[in-house]
Amino acid sequence: MDVTKEVFGYIDDQPVTLYTIKNDNGLQVECINYGGIITKILTTDRDGNLENIVLGYDTIQEYEKNSPYFGAVVGRVAGRIKEGKFSLEGNTYQVTQNENQHHLHGGYKGFSQVLWDTNVIEKENEVTIEFSYFSPDGEDGYPGNLQMNVKYTVNHDNELIISYYGFCDQTSLLNVTNHTYFNLSGNLKRDVLDHELTINSDKFIELNEELLPTGKIADARNTVFDFRKGRKIREGVHSTHPQNILVKKGYDHPFLLNANHQNEIILADQDSGRTLIVETDEPSVVLYTGNKLEGELSIRGTKARNYLGLCLETQAPPDSIHQPHFQSAIIKKGKSYETKTKYLFTVE
Fold first, then answer.
1. What class of enzyme is it (predicted)?
2. Could you list the residue range(s) of the whole structural domain that residue 93 is in?
3. What integer pLDDT is reported at residue 333 of this predicted model?
């Protein structure tokens, strides 16, 4: 295992550090302490070509100015909170409304937009970059002083393991995920429309026009939301299902997982031979297929377009504070939050 670090840029005269981890099989993971952002993941295709399989930038200025959460840790709460309001233990809280009147991905000073402290832990068969951040009571409107730690561990089994740990001194909300956009073609040679995705799930959460959960848990079976036997992304993009059309043709939906740590999510690109297997202890995964990437962005020389990457955001269901039948995102005073997601990179 090999790990190096260098200065990636500066924010408010503070250095941003880039960490590069390489294992003996060619897997390379690069990340920075701004937002805990994964900037690159390099893996080999079936012909041995080492290429980047995630969306990201080469400068800190691009991440600061115009990034749709590329590769970032998002929180305190991933997804949307309706009107940025919620009640806990008899108290009502107003968090920042950074998407229309709603709260999205932690607000204006969410985890994706702060400098994290770092610690490098080297072992014989793995390297861990540990990010830590103290979020004070009232930051973005959330109650409680929160200590958050996120670990990225890369090993010789071609695994990237992301471990999350949080502790809060007041009852609050916490639902953290990683927002990496994957494209297994390598160096953005193609979009993800012909990527085949398998999810062990027969239920998804219905959304309204503001992309908030309606509260309905819909039956995915025998619909374009049924990924149990594998399905190409383009099927949802070309679908006439009202939920696909609602999110601008594609997917931006939470899927409730039927199993954990059992190869429950598999993404494959037939042309390159690359396969990504995701296992988690979270109850759901939000599939976002990059339906709104098109615009003025340029991603390492490639003009942004829809479906250039997709996200697999393992987490508790969004806006659960307003949907009591969803798994809760409440962290009780003095209790810890712990969750883990593993990404295995293989070639077929």
1. isomerase
2. 2-347
3. 97
Cα radius of gyration (the chain): 19
Which of 273, 277, 242 minimizes the C-alpha distance to 262? 277
Query: Which secondary-structure segment (H or E) carries 104?
Result: strand 103-104
Choose the catalytic residue: 105, 179, 195, 253: 179
The reported pLDDT for the residue numbered 330 is 98
Listed residue (145, 120, 150, 152) closest to 132, CA to CA? 150
**pLDDT band, residue 116 (cuts 50/70/90):** very high
Residue 246: φ, ψ to 5°: -55, -40
What is the distance between the alpha carbons of residues 33 and 138, in angstroms, rounded to a whole number? 23
Number of domains in the chain: 1
Question: Per-residue pLDDT tens for 297-309?
Answer: 999 999 999 999 9
DSSP notation for 260-318:
SSSS-EEEE-TTT-EEEEEEESSSEEEEE--TT--SS-EETTEEP-TTS-EEEEEESPT
pTM given for the model: 0.98
What are 218's strand-pairing partners? 204
Of 30, 139, 264, 313, which is the active-site residue? 313
Residue 313 known to be catalytic:
yes
Strand order in the sheet with 265-268: 117-122, 126-135, 146-155, 159-168, 336-347, 274-280, 265-268, 196-199, 231-232
What backbone phi and psi angles, to 5 degrees, belong to 158?
60, 40
CATH code of the domain containing 25: 2.70.98.10
Catalytic residue list contains 102: no
Say how many CA atoms lie within 13 Å of 38 toward its Cβ.
30
Q: What is the pLDDT of residue 152?
A: 98
State the pLDDT confidence band at 188, using cuts at 50, 70 and 90: very high
